[in-house]
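Exam revision sheet. Question 4 asks you to relate a sequence to its structure. Input first:
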Amino acid sequence: MTDPSSAIPTRRATIMISSSSISTTPSALVRLPTELLDLVLAEIGEVADDGDRNGYHIKLQTFHALTLTSKSLQTAATPWLYSEFRSEGHEHRIQPYLRTMCRNHALAGHVRSVSMAEYITRNPQPPDAAEMALFTRQVATLQSSPTWRQLGKAVGYGCYTAELVLILTLTTQVRYLRIATDDTRRLRSSRYATRECNKCPIMRTCLEIIFGSAHTNTSYRRLEHMVLFDTRNHLCDADVTHKIVSHLLSLPSLKILKCSGLGFTRDPTSYLSDAAPRSSNIEVLSLGIGNLKSVDVVQILGWAETLRDCEIHWSALYYEIRLPTDIAGLDDVDVDEDEAGGMHTDMYFRCDFDVATAALLTALTRHANSLERLIIVDLQQHGLAFRGQHPFHSLQQLHRLRELQINDQLLIRGGTWQNVSLATMLPPRLRKLVIYSIALELSDLGKILAACGDYRAPDLEDLRITFATDDADREEYFVLFDGSSSSGTRAWFLGSDTYEDGARAVFSCWERPMWPLLAALGADVRRSGLQRLFDLQCAGTEEPKEQLGLVMTAPGTDPGVDDGKDEVVAALQDMVLGEQWAELVNSHIYEPEPGI
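Answer key, C-alpha cells:
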C-alpha cells in the first residue's frame, strides 16, 4: 500500500512541519480557537481520506506520522483525532480506543461521530490486566443491574459487544451514531466463541438501558443523526423488545432516525414503550425492514412535529413449514424429494397484517406543509404487505411533496390499472415518481403509461416504473429499448436494474414536459404491444438489428438472429428476468392487447 503520508501535498506538509510557531512556541497550536483548529485538521484529514475505501484508517496513519514531527501538534490534534471512530473492518482498534477513552474521560467529550459493528472473529483478544482494571472501573460507574454485571464479565473475555457498549457509555456527546449489529447470540454458532462470551447481554438490552436514561451519565442530548441496526438481512429473535425507538424519539436534538431490521419477528412487534414522548423534533425518518405495527407507525408520525422526509419499508413475512406428505387432506400441493430421500411439502403462512392506510394517510397529512419526500414500499415479498389493503384515496393533500416512491397496490383498486387517473391521485408538484408494480409481467405497462400521461405535473423530471422479476440475484444493469422524444433527444428506456428484491424490469423517462410522451407511448403500447417500443427504438435506421445491438449489450444474444423481435426475446430469456417473465414478454411483443 502507498505510504499514507505521501497523500498529503508537500506544500501543506512543509507549512505544518517547518513553521516557527510550532518549533519555537509549542503552545501556539493549542491556543488556536477550537473551530479554527478543527478546520485546519479537517483539511488534512480530507486529503488523507479522499478516494480510498479505507480512508479513515489511512487518515489515522497520516495523523500519527504528522504528530511525530511535533509534540505541540500531537497535543493539539489529539482531541480532533478522537472526534471520530469507526470500527468496521478494523475490530482490533476497538480495545485501544476504549482504553484511551477510559484513561482520559475528557477526550470522550470531543467525540462527535461513532460508527460501530459487531464481529464474529477467530481470535477474540481478552484485555491485559491493566486494561481490565480500566474497564472494570468504567463498569463500576454504571448503575448496578444484572445487565451491567454480565457486561463486566464479558469484557474480560474480549467480547466485542461488551467493548462497544462501554464505548457508548463514554461517548455521550456524539452528534452522529451508527450501530450496524447482528444479535450477539450469533456468537454461539461460532466454534471460536467461548462459553463465557455467550453470557454477554444482548446489544438491544444494553441500548434500551443507555437510551432509556437508566444510565444517569448518558444523555445523548446532542445526538442529531442515528442509524440503528442498519443490516438489511438481520433477523431478530421473537423475545427481543424494540422499545428503544421511543427513547430515541425523545432526544431533543435528534433530526434523523434510520432503523432497519427492528421488526423482523414472527409477529408484528411494537417499537414503542408506554412512556412515549409527547412530541419529537425528528425531520428524517426511515423505518424498516420488518413487520411493522401500523398503529406504531401512525403514532410515530403523530409525534413528529415537522417531518420532511419519510421512508417506510413494510415487509409481511412468509413462514415456511415443512410437513410430511402422509398428512390427510393436503391436496394440490407440490411434493419434493430432499437430498436424504425423504418426501416433504412446503406450506407457507402469512402473518396477520394491517397497514391501516386510512389512518396512515391521516398521519402523513399532518405533515402536508413540510413533507417533501415519501417512500412507502414493500420490496421483500413482491408487495405482500399491501395485498388486500385499501389503497390511498388521494395524496394530493401532500402539496409540498417532491419525491414519491410507492407500491402500485396503494394507488389502484381491485388490482387493476384499467381506467386509473393519477391526475386525481398524486400531489401536483412531484419531481420524481417511482412506481413498484408487483406484476411479474409487462402487460400493465401500457395502462400505467397512460395513467401517468394523464398526470400533467410541470416539474416531473424523473419517472420510473418497475416490475418484479424471478431473478432475485442478478445485479446487472442494462438497457433493452432506448427511445427518443419528438425532438430526437434520448428521453426514455426500458431495461433492468437492481433493487432490494433483486432485478427489476424498469421503464424510465426524463423528458420535460413528460406527459405528452407518456400519453403517446401508453396508447401505442396498449394498441400494438411491446412491438411498438421496438419500432420506436429502430425508427430512422435502415439496420434495426444493428441499431438495437448498439443500445443493448447482452451476453448470450446471438447477433445472427434474422428477426429483431426474436433478438429482443432471446436477450430477455438469456440474461434478465427468468423464463416466466420472458414468455409473457414474448406473447406481448407479437400480439396487441386484447380488446384494443
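Marking note for examiners. Residues 93-113+121-173+194-221 form one domain.
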